[in-house]
Structure formats: C-alpha cells, structure tokens
Amino acid sequence: MTKSGKTFTTALTITATVLVTVVAARGVRTEQANTAPSDIVLRGRYLVLTHACGECHGGGDDPAAKGFLAGAGLSEPLVEFKIGPPPCGVDPKATGCFTTRPRNLTPDDATGMGRFTERQLFNALRYGLRPEDTPDVTITSMTPGKGNFPMQPHYVAPPMPWPAWRHMPDADLRAIAAYLKRGLKPVVNKVPDSEGPPDFWASGMTPAEIGTYPAPAFPTMYEQQPPAANHARVMRGRALVLEHGCADCHQSLAGPAAKGYMAGITSPDQEFVLGGCFQDPKAPCFHGRARNLTPDKETGIGKFTDQQIFNALRYGLRPDDTPDVKITSRTPGQGNFPKEPKYLGPFMPWSSWRYMPDEDLLSIVAYLRHGLKPVSNKAAASDDTPDHWASAVAQLGAYPPPAFPTANEVRRK
Amino acid sequence: MRLRLTVSLFLALMALPGSPREAAGPALFQAVTPAAAETFTSPPVLRNGSEKPGVVELDLTAAPARLELVPGKPTTAWTYNGTVPGPTIELREGDTVTIHFHNRLAQTTTVHWHGLHIPSGADGSPLNPVVPGGNQDYVFKVPAGTAGTYWYHPHPDMTTTEQVARGLYGALIVLPARPTEDPLAGIRDRLLILSDNRFQPDGSVDLPDHMSPAGHVDAENGREGNVLLVNGQTMPALEIRPGELQRWRIVNAAAARIFRLAIPGQKLLHVGSDGGLFATPRAVDDLMIANSERVEVLVRGGAPGSRAVLQTLPYDRYDPHTRPTDWNQPRDLLELRTTTDAPLPAMTIPATLRVVTAIDIKQVAARRALVFSQGMINGKTMDMRRVDVSARLNTTEIWQIENVVAMDHPFHLHGFRFQVLDRDGVPEPYVSWKDSVNVPRHSRVRIAVRFEDFAGKWMFHCHILDHEDMGMMGILLLR
Q: How far apart are CA A298 and CA A296, in angstroms?
C-alpha cells in the first residue's frame, strides 16, 4: 500500500474496521509454499496471494472468499482511497482529493480484465501503464515516445503499488497476468472509475518520487555490506523487500537510495488511516504508523531477535509483546503461541506475507538486520484495539490457503 | 486550461461580400433574411449548376477566408465557399451528383459525405487525399430510401480536428424523390447545425499544442469549445407561430461534445435519426445527440408571445481525470420565440411516417467484436496499409462495439447505414437507421449491418475527432 509524503498521500477508508481477512488456527504447516510452483498459473496465484492483491481488490488473502479480486464494492468492506495533497487520506475533511478504487481484476470482458491481453497487464505491472489506454505492444524503453513507451503515459491510480511490483522478474509478472486471465472465473462488477488529475498521475511518477527502475545497486548509502556468510540471504531479502513494497509505508517510496529508507514515518502525513470515518464522521478510524525497520537498537528492530521478527511476519505477532520462542502451533496457549496474542494492526499485510516460505521470511529478516544501516527514528505506536486485533485476525481465511481451484477459480487455456 | 472569454459573445454568420454561392431557386433551406425578431440564420444552399432533372452539379471550394467567428474580431477561418458552416447541400433520392471540389488550403484535405451510401472512391476517406491546390470530383448517385439529414466535413489522416475547428463543416440534406413522398410535407423545415468552439482573445481559433496541458486534455476528451454554436451563431432567436409545428433537422458537428437537448416546458417529438424518419414519432423529454449524429424533432409553438429555450442538459461522457468542472451545468443554445400572430390550426402528424424495415439477422455471415479503448480499436491504432476487418459483399454482419474505458466513444461506420440491435443487452425499442452510435463508458452496443453495392475499403472509427486523428480508426475491406 503506497504512500508518498510529497505529492500525494493515501489512506484506506473502509466501512468496517476489518481489512485483513485470513488466519485460522488450524494447520501448523509452515512450509507449505516453500516450493515455487512450476506451473505459471499456480506461480501467479502464489504471487497474487503473497503480494496482498486481494487486500484492496477484494477477498483479502483468501481465494475462496466472495468477491476475490473482483474489485471494490462487491464484497464488504468497500475499499476506497483518497489521494491528493496532505492531509488527503489522513483527514476526512481534506479537500481537493481524488477518490480512487481498486478495480475488478477478474477476466470479465466488460468490467474486468477480460479484454486486455496478458502483455497489457504485464505493462501495467512493470510500467504502471493503464491497460485500456496503452497499446498492446512490447515496451522496450521508459522514455516517453521511445521503444513503444507512450508519449503521454497514463498511469494506474495510486495507491496501486506497481513501483514495487515492477521489481519482480519478468517471469513473475507474466505469471500474475496469466493467473488473472487464466486462473480466475470472470465476475461482473462495475467499479466506479477512479478519479485523478488530467495528466493521469504522470507528474508524480518520476524517479524522485517512486525511485528508479532497476533499483540502485547494493549497497546504497543507507545500506551496508553484510558479513559474507549472510550475503546471499541478504540479497534475496533485499529483492523481496523491494518487490513487496515494504518501503511504501516504512519509507520511502523513492527506494533504497532515499534518505530514511525503511526507517519509519517521520510526519503525520505519512500515517496510514483505516476505518469508516471517511464515509461517516462518527465511525472510528485507526492510524497506522509504520515503524523503523532498520537495525537501530533503540528505535528499530535491533532489540528483537530474528525469531521475533520471523514470528511477526508469519503470525502477525508483535515482537515487542511476544516471547523469543519458536512457535509450533496456531492455537493460543499451545506450542508457544501466546495465550492472549497481540497482533500487528491490519495496516501491516502480514496475513499475505505469512504465505511466503520460511526461507523468504528469514531472508527479509537478514536484510533488515544486516543489509540496512541503523537509523535512529522513533515513530509513535499505531492505534490499537482493546483485543489487540484478535477479533479481526479471527476472521482471516485458512492457512495455508485453500487448494486451487476454489469456487472463484478455474483452469483456462 | 479552458479559455475563458470575458466578453459575451454574439457570433453571427458572416458571409463574405460577394460570396460565390448564394442561395438560389426554390430551395427548402434558403438563407433566411432575419426578421426584426428572428436572429436565427441558416447557411446558404449550394446552387445546382445543372439544369437537367435528376442531375446535380456543385462546386465546393475549401479555402481560408477572413471572417468574424467572434463578432468584431476578424480572423482567418477555413471555409467551404466562404462561410462557416459551409453551404447546405440539398439533394434528392435518385439524383446523379457531381461535386467539383477544390482544395485551396495549405493542407491536404478530403470531403467526407457523412452517412451517404456511395462508392468508396467518392467517400472522401483518408485513402483519397486531395493535396493543396488539388481538385477532386466526387461522383455518386443518391440511393432511394435514404431521405434524411447528413453532413460533410474533412477526413484527412491526422488533421481532421484542426480543419473542422477552423470552420470546415456543413449540412447535406437528402429529400425524397418527389416532395409528395415526404410525410411531413407542409411542415416548416429548420436546419440546426450544432457545434462548439474555443477562441483566443483575438478571436482566432484556440488550438493548443498537443504537448501542452490544454492540448493533452483536448486529446483525452476530444476538443470541446466553451462557446456553443447553432449554425455558427451563439444563442440565436428562432421564431415560431402559436400552434405551429416545425421540423428541426439537427446535426451535431462538434468535435467531441455530446448534446442532451431539451426545451424545458415541452416534450420533443423525436421523428428521425441519422438515416431519416422513424416509422412512428416518439415523445421525449430530452434527446441525446452524440457528435456526428443527427436527429429530427417536431417542435410546437407556445402561447402567443411566449419564450422558451433550447438547452443542452448535463451529460457526463468524460473520464474522471479530465472531466471539466462545469460539466454539470445546463447550457442555453437557442431562444424559441413564439410570435403574437394568430394561432395556426393544429396540424396533425401522421401516425405512420414511413416503413422502416428491420435488417434480417436470420442469416449472419459474421459476428465481430470491436473493442474501443482510449485511442485504440482492438488494441491497435490506425495503419493505412492494414486491413482490420475483411467482409463479403451481400452479407449481413453483427458487430459488437465494446467500450472498455471510462469515457464515451461514438462509433461511426462509413458507407453503410446500420441498425442498433441492443445496448448492454437491452433491445433497442424501435428500428432506425444509424451511421453513428454513441457507446457510453464501459458498455456495449450491438449493431446489424448489411453490406451491399460497394466493394472497397471503408473506415470505421471513433468520431471524437481528436481520437480519430490519433488513430482510433480501422479499415473494413469489402469484397
């Protein structure tokens, strides 16, 4: 979920307090996704699940959920974003904001992706180009007017995190396109069209705002060379942190060469606001404040063990409030799972990240600990609920995710 | 972004002194000498140079002329025979027509006879350009059964928007072979060519650079003017007698604007579309007319001395990114003044205007989908060397035009009239002849078309002129 302090800010405004949907305490399998599927559609499905597409586009992380990827408005809660100059997305009373909405990603011809080719979807994921406004051609340049890159590019509306997704390998982006086109059943759902500025966001899509592609070489001045023994893992972790858009919230969207990279928010404009207050002033909203993920001992993750950070990514357990133990169960009180778990707020899409193999999660941990320079920055704590989000987590779908195909899915040529 | 003129504008049609083509003969659409109360004027009717019955020979010249598109601010407009709009061409079914066209512009152009079913070589498509200084004879026969309201405009490759904006557009009326065949004979005909334009403070046509922000908005929306025009005039006053019924033939010659016409206080009697009259009239509160479409309506005079206004009501055809802020404001087009004359006796409208037969779709040679996205058809932009659709003469096809983007795109097929079968699956409630149909955002329209008489290459395209120029066009090859 993208958020940029400079040109626009973002907030998720939902009618209920629940954004995250998945996690049941049944299975204890933690290595379910450890083998990357060789099948392109299954590979795409895995990437769609672990990149949290359903968090905005419908159905959360559960491919069996009603309205999975079918766009805003079909399944509750309604997801909308308010994009514009601060305090758009943070203050419901802000003016001059554009409303953007996650669209229907199912292959319905009229209301979804049915009439776009997989190449057009690839171009949307790699270059952020709206498929309906961009010819079905192979793009070989990022300079407008060259190599089939449009002279006046039309970008998909923020907060679609294509600046992060573009860092995935070609084959992965093609796999996502293949899954959307060939692995989902079409669902008719007309999502109202997103608003935006007349330049279709072009002025905000500069390297200064969204970073460069490809990403700057490692290490930048905010990164450091890890011990040789950790190098491979750190590099793998860096790629995952980039392609999962961690910095979209943990700062900064402009990438590893930007000041304060992964060091957490530094201004209230960068908060992530979630809840119904944008539709109904009396409804509650919750403020997420992305924390400092650099290895600083006081304000960052330096004080936590690898196990604690792993437990946060896999189980959503707050490292501050969870013992440094290996967890072998998902039932509170069993196998070291806390009796009264305290979860990270739903601003943090760990319910998608949890589907990643252990090795990937450990690689992310290794990068945070060994690949980043420590930065001192104390972000205020995020808003919490009295049950520390336990009732929201109880509504999450199954772990591991249901087998392909669910009722929403199909195998199509 | 949109030019705001601080002076109120009264655009008048300024024919040049000694304009080469004056109204002549017993034409239906004579240039009207404005009475004291009527400021509404019509373009002159182009004089037929042939004396032979059934033979029409016309001279039409595209050339710059010094005109006041904005009163008091002479500028160089591009004109047909010196006027904006150009002279009205009046033909009859069965006429053998030769139009001697002369291009005296500095640009390549063509003249497209929008809606006429004539040989492809006479269609004025971009495949037959007329170079600066060049001449072209357009020769065709007006098919029987096509009495209706049409229009003509340039159709060169990539520069249509500019040429139309600078003044090149005019109406073409096809009358029944014999006046007695007109079911509305005796009802006064009025021609209303709707358009819009945008001007610089010096009165010249505002055409921003394509790479400027304003040019970008034009490219997205299609160029819209902030000045609304009826026959080149702003807010003319048109007279009608109490109780009188008038037949208004309305052409939308705007590059992109869709008009939603209404006269608050009276229903419009919608009697015809692009290809002429319906079988039966239909009463409507308001009437959409997308760019390049035509409608025919019957309008009734009010109480003696009363006034009414022809308005265009808000209609949201825009992508949310480039929707103008004032889109939701109604705009006035024309004042309808009922005279204080003695009321005319009520006129009866025939219950049946004519027979309009539905195209037989029991035998369909092909069903095709054309996907309209922004600037593209089926993901491609225009290539003059490419054939996009290949079809057979003497067959019937069903085309589904799908609009997958957030703004409307009007579809136009050259050379062949068609009938709308359904819109988003809802069957069209009446049969009518169309050559252009608006396809609203995220919707689909199915049409049936019968290909007869004329082999060759035919254009189909989005009739937002900027989109057409950008290549939102394809080629149909008929063999």
A: 6
